[in-house]
Design a protein that fits this description.
The structure is a single chain. The radius of gyration is 20 Å and the shape is globular. By secondary structure, the protein is α/β, with parallel strands linked by helices. The chain has eleven helices and twelve strands. The structure holds zinc ion (ZN). The site of zinc ion (ZN) has 5 residues, from loops.
Length: about 300
Amino acid sequence: MRIRSTLGLVSVICFLVFVSSLTAQDLGSQFKKIKGGIYVQSAMETNSNCGVILTQEGVVLVDSGFNPTDSRAVLDAVKKLTPRPIRFLIDTETHPDHTTGHFVFSPPTIIINHTGAGEAMRKDFDPERLNTLMKQSPAMREAAQGYRLVAPQLEYGDKLTLRLGERTIEVLHLKNVHSGADSAIWLPQERVLFAASAMGPRRLNNIRPFVTIQDMLHAIRMMKALNPEIVVPGHGSPGPPSMFDDAERYYAVLLERVGAMARAGKTLDQMKAELKMPEYAAWANQERLPNNIEAAYRAVQGSK
Ligand SMILES: [Zn+2]
């Protein structure tokens, strides 16, 4: 066990050295170059990631940044990198911390997500969001000028293959993992995977009532089976695919403990009060443990 965790640590350190050696100095510290022509922008570890994929026929973005200031930073970076247009923007989910900045790019950029994304975005739309953003800072006030809801113009079924220039980009539906419509983005030649918010390294996921742990595990196993070299989660640092193993182990431990308590006749409220996950105390978003326990409880009830 100790050897395994040491090996795991060594592989993570090697990975970090590899990624940081490719840091895109000219674009600023928010940007990491993760492969030739592929960048990830995030101003803070907790923020969502925005992917920038250059091709000979134009640029593809993955999500549009955490806030409009991030979207503007991405637009400026793309202008430094290439004279070619941003042709497509693929959403990994529908929530505003991944989609508010769409108005910065579209039109002319075409936005893509799974069927139902537009409906979910219109349903969740908060007309006060613009005012809330403008109050945050003068920079945000400036960046939010022109904000309006822009939903995907193109919705796909199970899978969509985008061929642009030298790149093949597969967009894969992840069912019931996080929002009203979730997509993983897979570049098979480059072995880079954008894993959406189905995957957050070393953090507890916010598991909403319609999400099931079975569906999350299904998505995690499907993505792991693609055999990616670099995984870009919805939030948090890009890293090696061992983050999938960490998540699988976490859910296995959680399901085992909730299952044992259910067999002992404990109620859901008792589980929330008593159940501890000390091995994962260092993971972020501990306030989400009660909703993780609820999700595990639904899973255990469903498997009776
Ligand atoms: Zn989200």
